[in-house]
Amino acid sequence: xxxxxxxxxxxxxxxxxxxxxxxxxxxxxxxxxxxxxxxxxxxxxxxxxxxxxxxxxxxxxxxxxxxxxxxxxxxxxxxxxxxxxxxxxxxxxxxxxxxxxxxxxxxxxxxxxxxxxxxxxxxxxxxxxxxxxxxxxxxxxxxxxxxxxxxxxxxxxxxxxxxxxxxxxxxxxxxxxxxxxxxxxxxxxxxxxxxxxxxxxxxxxxxxxxxxxxxxxxxxxxxxxxxxxxxxxxxxxxxxxxxxxxxxxxxxxxxxxxxxxxxxxxxxxxxxxxxxxxxxxxxxxxxxxxxxxxxxxxxxxxxxxxxxxxxxxxxxxxxxxxxxxxxxxxxxxxxxxxxxxxxxxxxxxxxxxxxxxxxxxxxxxxxxxxxxxxxxxxxxxxxxxxxxxxxxxxxxxxxxxxxxxxxxxxxxxxxxxxxxxxxxxxxxxxxxxxxxxxxxxxxxxxxxxxxxxxxxxxxxxxxxxxxxxxxxxxxxxxxxxxxxxxxxxxxxxxxxxxxxxxxxxxxxxxxxxxxxxxxxxxxxxxxxxxxxxxxxxxxxxxxxxxxxxxxxxxxxxxxxxxxxxxxxxxxxxxxxxxxxxxxxxxxxxxxxxxxxxxxxxxxxxxxxxxxxxxxxxxxxxxxxxxxxxxxxxxxxxxxxxxxxxxxxxxxxxxxxxxxxxxxxxxxxxxxxxxxxxxxxxxxxxx
Length: 686
Fold this sequence. Notes:
Elements: E1 3-4, E2 32-33, H1 36-53, H2 57-64, H3 69-82, H4 86-99, H5 106-119, H6 122-135, H7 142-154, H8 158-170, E3 191-196, E4 205-211, E5 215-220, E6 241-248, E7 253-259, E8 270-275, E9 281-287, E10 303-311, E11 314-315, E12 319-320, E13 330-335, E14 341-346, E15 356-364, E16 367-368, E17 372-373, E18 384-389, E19 393-398, E20 408-415, E21 418-419, E22 423-424, E23 435-440, E24 446-451, E25 461-468, E26 473-480, E27 491-495, E28 501-506, E29 512-515, E30 523-529, E31 536-541, E32 547-554, E33 561-564, E34 567-570, H9 586-601, E35 606-612, H10 619-639, E36 647-652, H11 670-674, E37 678-685
Helix pairs in contact: 3-4, 4-5, 5-6, 5-7, 6-7, 7-8
């Protein structure tokens, strides 16, 4: 595993090079290096993987079936897994499950799914979790199902996630906190009002944190006169102090800032605070120093988390936490709402990237458990920073790929210590600059974050945000196209512009439905289904924060059954073919789908297919072409689930039964000729 050398933030500004106060920043790859012991272990234990991957499928399958090989591979995969080398473990588990004859046990499938889940490969995680769920439905734990549900969502299987979640919850006596939420609305868009605060200056303000009931503590370099604007490299930085401001609830602002505490603030840097639930203990980040700054083996002054108690209205002298180190940095603390855990960021050895998020149990009396990495669903090969934990979610910042630019703020849902893949909060919380140190009130409606986005007052500014009422909605009624009566219990699905299903519901007894909290001025697609009716699809564009209403009419399946001169026929729109072709066109496929729907509704229906051509070409060829078209139409219907025995015949008549006068020797336009290229469906038995 790689050990990143951590270039610090919050360093001395006088005579020392340091980086951004709002980052645990580091340089490019040349600053990364591996310790000899880790490199040697890693190399020896993964060399065989390259050898296995170099084999052909046939050779690999033969190799893993040799006596004792499968057992050794499982042992090696388990060793990787226990070291949290999930990517390597996933590769070996895949070989065992896909190439060997090993029994697909609960543990093997579970670990294979977990390895891919923590590595961020949701498709493979879904594969093994899905098999685990199907094979061990009654044994799967809440934690495992939580990850399975997220793998379903992560691969776009929203409808299945919703269905399985409902079934899973019905089997449990207690509701699941996270799974109790509507799986189709977990990524619903929000309308957010963002405001630059009065406390911001031309210097740097960041890392807000709630304090008591009406205050916010934050870091600022307000008193410094030598601040150099942060750039993405080492530079001189100001000293930071902690300030406290009054929260103006009515105006969503912070006012009357003042220094937080003389005992906490020093001549060095202090920032990124968190409080115990009773507000009697503070955790904060500070430079590592005693009587003078201390440097680690790499010559860098690292960061540490310190703790102080409130006694008789005064903060005591701070002492450092036991999991700090002289040789790597630890910072950005966040205490859980119950006060039992502390989350933080570190570049300690064994992580996945530049800085990772860790958690430790708070045991009391200055004691803490051994920190644990939160894993691949939160941490990446990039930088994860500024964690903020709530009862059901972790918010953090990352500069991972596919963001909006710089640091973006992400949300990871959690239950029983299992964290989902981080979801980007999107605009306007995130911008093309750095957005970080996000905190949110228990109500989930408002909070604060920091950003160096354009339009601010200084380097980093603190912003308030408030979720405002989102009135963007699509509502309507589903009616019978023939009678105009309301259709209850019709299934209505909503798809976004990328054809991804985002919501699903059933109509009320009066046929009504409504999808709320949608994106403004966006294209959506409604698909409505009801047994006995044809499916209906409608494109709808939302407006600016208002409801868009429509009527969705469904045609009864029996509507296309008609009698013509004593003969029952299925009157779909004419199935046209291109000139000299017999392949099914997309438009034709839509009509044939209607026919399939009717035959599914009437299981005793038997039909015969008659296909016809125009008079262009020889009679013999047209006879051949029409017969190919009839057979092509029959094959399409059979391929979509209709028993071949229900199609009595599929015959081509060529140009024998023209619908107009465009016979041999008669000049006609292209449109007139196309009228004769058709297929007809005659009902033989109902």
